Amino acid sequence: MPAHQLAEMLRRRQISARELTEAVLARIEAVDGQVQAYITVTADAARRMADEADRRLAAGEGVTPLTGIPVALKDNLCWDGVRTTCASRILHNFVPPYSATVVDWLIQAGAVIVGKTNLDEFAMGSSTENSAFFVTHNPWDLSRVPGGSSGGSAAAVAAGEAVLALGSDTGGSIRQPAAFCGVVGMKPTYGRVSRFGLVAFASSLDQIGPFARDVEDTALLLQAVAGHDPLDSTSVNRPVPDYPAALRQGVKGLRVGVPREYFVQGIDPRVEQAVRGAVARLEKLGATVTEISLPHSEYAIATYYLIAPAEASSNLARYDGVRYGYRAQGAPDVVAMFSRTRAEGFGAEVKRRIMLGTYALSSGYYDAYYLKAQKVRTLFVQDFQQAFQQVDIVVAPTTPTPPFRIGEKADDPLAMYLSDLFTIPANLAALPAMSVLAGFTEEGLPLGVQFIGPHFAEERLLQAAYALEQDLAGEGVMARRPTLPVKAATA
Amino acid sequence: MPLEDYEIVIGLEVHAELLTESKLFCGCSTKFGAEPNTHVCPVCLGLPGVLPVLNEKAVEYAVRAGLALNCEIASFSKFDRKNYFYPDLPKAYQISQYDLPLCRNGWVEIALPPADENSPARTKRIGIIRVHLEEEAGKSVHSSETIVGSEYSLEDYNRVGIPLIEIVSKPDIRSPQEARLYAESLRTILLYAGVSDCKMEEGSLRVDANISLRPRGATEFGTRTEIKNINSFRSIERALAYEAARQAQVLDEGGQVVQETRAWDELHGVTVAMRSKEEAQDYRYFPEPDLVPVVTSREWVEKIRASLPELPLARQERFQRQYGLPAYDAALLTETRDMADFFEEAARQWHDPKAVANWLMGDFTRLLKEHGLEVSQSRLRPGHLVGMLKLMEKGVISGKIAKTVFEEMFLSGQDAEQIVKDKGLVQIADTGELEGIIQRIIAANPQPAEDFRKGKEKALGFFVGQVMRETKGRANPALVNELLRKLLTAGQ
């Protein structure tokens, strides 16, 4: 059941926050053995928070739409006193003495945090196979990946192991797993949500965002985490609109642009069909549809894989074994300690990106790689600026394919990188973008469609996504849930 | 060829810690000398997920320094990351400024000593390329004297994140002495501007020097070395003099100077190779994505400019003009703002500024040094000095007694009149009283009295000494002389 309905039941005292939390914990107990969405389940803390929520609900004080709602956190979001691993050996034992701003705000809103979810190590990957601990499985088909890097959060929401979840999106890490897991995921405008307490991957691209079962829940969670934070200099001081209020405005007269460059290379026909179907529905609901061009789209991967690793090589340099986290034993001197710690503490993909980024920033190569990539990044901004003179939103596929099988691309980094082809441009241009369910393949795999808007146009995205979702719901598409073998309760 | 045939070319990179209460990117205290790792927080420790927030005061201080050094202030400036691994650098990068520093194109005028006593004082302008803002690293504490012999090292991160400015000079400096004078001028200016305490012994001012030689008349620069680990103003001159001689010898022997970083070894008075150009770090600078650019308005910059005090060189010139002081005195008195303020406050109340200057440069400076005090900590204030000078002028105390009174004022903070009264230091100017004493002394010393009468002027000195001893120095010297002459001859 989505959060907005549960919130209503909580307010009417039809259920208690404690009962709801116990139900979610029981669901985790029952299915997480197969899905493996969580790295850490914080059952005790969740029960305490649920009791606090019940107290607030009973007293009618400080009640928000999130009071008593179980939420999962991607395990790269710091929560004071709780292990935050980034799914990396190097942080396997790291317990932050502070919380991310978004976590503080969730707690203030009365949400119940049930645990920390799995991810590709340091959010680098598109399948959650790069976790140092274990692979998360797609609840719709356990042999397939949930996408990544926020695969744990997406799978948890899809499998009913959390009502809502937070993830982070650097090149598609919210939207791609949302599409693969048949849930809604949004990457807000860069600067809309504070990054304080999000363990950095690529600082100029990272953005925290919501996962939810439906668009209305997405709006509720976004409402709770959006806003200016003095602890993040890149967070924007600009009023936060009332997102849920924007949902029901419809799409009549909305100008929808479909970029022709997103329907060429290697796109799965089922994905294309679903996206074109979604566009047709919007048109039917009163939107006008135009084909547009985003001419620099083909440079997305190349640009991203210079900027993101460059920033990552610097952001991840602090994991040296001196102050916290994993430290290699027995090194004869400090340089050996640094290199052994990092050699043993990081996984292959993280090391690959650190090397790529170090190279891109090296003297003699900086101009040709990093600087050039920054210039191309400006071209992406211009592409979208021009597009948004003609249209209000851009509709495109979220991913080129439906969820692939575990192991299918694990040994082919380039093929893996290509699964972010359609999501990266919004990060490069700092735009808000979201993925919503567009339908299913014949074998029952979810397919996503992506909406991209101008800066701070989250309301417009929610409004369009909501209209599409309502239309699909009329045909029962939204009611489909993954069926998971439930582990017998242990005595 | 001899060193004199080479032209020495020097440029300095000076780091100064800014006097802000809190660090550059977090709220931690910047106080020196706390227990290790007590002035730290997740932000300055660079824990995962934290973000820097710029301390506006630090930007203001850096701009203030830039203005005091005659720089242009950038309206748009940004921060960059300088990446390198070291245990004292918690993020493994230092937030610094690379291509768009806060301040550019300044200069400092230094006063060169006159070529000889009769030549006029000369000044020279040393160009400043840039002044930028950056954060401090921490401090490694090794278990033995050196890192190599140490079993383990510990890290103190109290210093991490303290705001620093780096001031890069043009290669305009032509001698080790000029280098020291330039560094001292910088120190004086920064102290005046109130942006740094510039204590080399606490590391709040640090100097690295680039030096190369070229044959006189050549236009191209020679290969340079960089000297680090210079820990006093005196060492700047010593280290550079050593290095100039070393390079000259290498060149004379037909060798080539290797571009490298060398460390000054204070104990042995030599520079030692640290690392070569090939081993130099590639810092992989790139724009800091966690901070937004620094945009300064003209208005704000002008407000800071207006709040700057009169700077040392201008004040020095004014002291010569307004108070008629010699250049030497003016330079000495303007070395710190406190001393110059002290002088002016006293000089305003006294008609003889040179007398004020003499007391300050002499006894006052000596006493401060003996007691390890700064001008601001002195109990003796300008009013005390003026009060004492008045007593001297009235003839209440002699110059000799004044020295005692001055020291007493310095120690107790009492005024001169009180001290003179309490200690009975009033000068004996009573002719009758002195005549009695003198007659007794003449009677007791017939031989010297006879000598004087026979024209031996020296004998008078003997009698003056005797009178002063008898009166414990309180006798008015002029009167003693006059009475002695009168009474010695009268006895004939």
Low-confidence stretches of chain B: none
Order of helices and strands of chain A: HHEHEHEHEHEEHHEHEHHHHEHHEEH
Question: What value does the average pLDDT of chain A take?
Answer: 95
Number of helical elements of chain B = 15
Major beta-sheet overview of chain A? 11 strands, mixed
How much strand of chain A? 5-15%
End-to-end span of chain B in angstroms? 76 Å
Tally the beta strands of chain B: 16
| CATH fold category name of the largest domain in chain A | Amidase signature (AS) enzymes
What is the CATH class name of the largest domain in chain A? Alpha Beta
What's the Cα radius of gyration of chain A? 21 Å
Q: Find the structural class of chain B using helix and strand composition.
A: alpha+beta
- Mean pLDDT of chain B, to the nearest integer, reads 91
Number of domains of chain B: 3
Q: What is the straight-line distance between the termini of chain A?
A: 27 Å
Strand order of the largest sheet of chain A: 1-3-2-4-6-5-10-11-9-7-8
Quick summary:
The complex is a heterodimer of chains A (491) and B (492). With 491 residues, chain A is an alpha/beta fold.
Tags for this model:
A: 491 residues; alpha/beta; Amidase signature (AS) enzymes; 2 domains; 11-stranded mixed beta sheet; 16 helices; B: 492 residues; 9-stranded mixed beta sheet; 16 strands; 20% strand; elongated
What features would you describe in this structure?
The complex is a heterodimer of chains A (about 500) and B (about 500). Chain A is α/β, with parallel strands linked by helices and about 500 residues long. Chain A has 2 domains: about 5-265 and about 270-290 and about 380-480, Alpha-Beta Complex (Amidase signature (AS) enzymes), CATH 3.90.1300.10; about 295-380, no CATH class. Helix content of chain A is about 40%, strand content about 10%. In chain A, strands 1-3-2-4-6-5-10-11-9-7-8 form an 11-stranded mixed beta sheet, with helices on both faces. In chain A, a hairpin with a 5-residue loop joins β10 and β11. Chain A is globular, with a radius of gyration of 21 Å. Chain A starts with a helix and ends in an 18-residue tail after the last helix. Chain B is of the alpha+beta class. Chain B has 3 domains: about 10-215 and about 275-300, no CATH class; about 310-425, no CATH class; about 430-490, Arc Repressor Mutant, subunit A (Orthogonal Bundle), CATH 1.10.10.410. Chain B is about 40% helix and about 20% strand. In chain B, the strands form 4 sheets. Chain B has a 9-stranded mixed beta sheet. Chain B has a 3-stranded antiparallel beta sheet with strand order 5-4-15, with no helix packed on it. In chain B, β12, α3 (about 235-250) and β13 form a beta-alpha-beta unit. In chain B, α2 runs antiparallel to α3 (about 235-250) and α5 (about 310-325) packs across α6 (about 325-335). Chain B starts with 5 loop residues before the first strand and ends with a helix. Chains A and B meet through α10 and α11 of A and loops of B.
